[in-house]
Design brief:
272 residues, mainly alpha, Tetracycline Repressor, domain 2, 61% helix, elongated
């Protein structure tokens, strides 16, 4: 039994957070969560993830790009009762999930959060800025759970993957009428085409999900659970896309059948 380690996402975040990182000569304003056009999606994801956790202690010299130092343990959860910003994120994300980006106004977000409208602009430069932070507020805990599930030491790599998706199917199967609100999908449908920052944020989250899955697939291949010539990264991207498609079809059909088809095909796909 191998020793328990942090999930790949946390390991990457801690690696970045444990030192001072600097970007190019871009002058981006990471205090307000704006994405630099010169930053890679992975850089944008890691920086925003750490910033969202509330542990950045300093950002220096905009002319030199971004520089930051982080202290303390990376914690994604925030106290939604004491933290006004977290209350706004939680309330606004809930509204945006139901009504979409275009159907959600700043006033509705602040009313739902029970804070003055001015508080919104104290924490967010714009609704676009809020949407980017809401994506990470919503998906970082999910990516954390995904990474932990794929690194569990009580099963083989193949079984860890299958168990994770079977558990998700079981969750939806227990709903009276299975439904799924895909925040990232609806936001990208509305805004990714005309908002490069939102597009970068969504891409970084999706790429990170594929990377977590690919890491486990590498283990499966090395353990002889997959063919030696299998490309784990291409396979991980395909599985992720197939799952999102199954969720969409489930929502349209209002029944669990598409997810059961996904599981049966995944089991066949992951045979040695």
């Amino acid at each position: 039994m191998r020793p328990k380690t942090k999930s790949p996402m946390v390991t990457s975040m801690v690696k970045v957070a444990s030192s001072t990182e600097s970007g190019g000569d871009c002058g981006c304003r990471l205090q307000s969560h704006q994405y630099c056009k010169k930053a890679s999606p992975r850089e944008a994801f890691l920086v925003s993830a750490i910033w969202l956790s509330g542990f950045i202690t300093g950002i220096n010299d905009r002319n030199a790009g971004y520089q930051f130092k982080v202290t303390g343990r990376i914690v994604v959860r925030m106290n939604a009762i004491q933290d006004k910003r977290a209350r706004i994120l939680a309330a606004g994300t809930e509204v945006m999930l139901l009504k979409g980006y275009n159907g959600t106004g700043v006033q509705e977000i602040t009313q739902n959060a029970g804070v003055p409208k001015g508080s919104f602009y104290h924490y967010f430069e714009s609704k676009e800025d809020f949407a980017i932070q809401a994506l990470h507020y919503y998906y970082l805990p999910r990516l954390e759970r995904f990474g932990n599930a794929l690194q569990a030491d009580d099963a083989s790599p193949r079984e860890r993957i299958l168990r994770f998706y079977r558990d998700l199917v079981g969750y939806f199967a227990n709903q009276h009428e299975p439904t799924h609100q895909c925040f990232i999908g609806s936001l990208c449908h509305e805004k990714a085409g005309d908002s490069q920052p939102i597009g970068y944020a969504a891409s970084a989250i999706l790429n990170r999900s594929s990377e977590l899955l690919a890491n486990c697939l590498v283990e499966a291949r090395d353990a002889g659970e997959l063919p030696a010539d299998q490309d784990p990264h291409a396979l991980g991207a395909f599985i992720g896309a197939a799952w999102e498609g199954a969720l969409l079809r489930m929502k349209v059909d209002r029944q669990i059948g598409p997810l059961r088809v996904f599981i049966s095909q995944l089991e066949r796909l992951l045979r040695p």
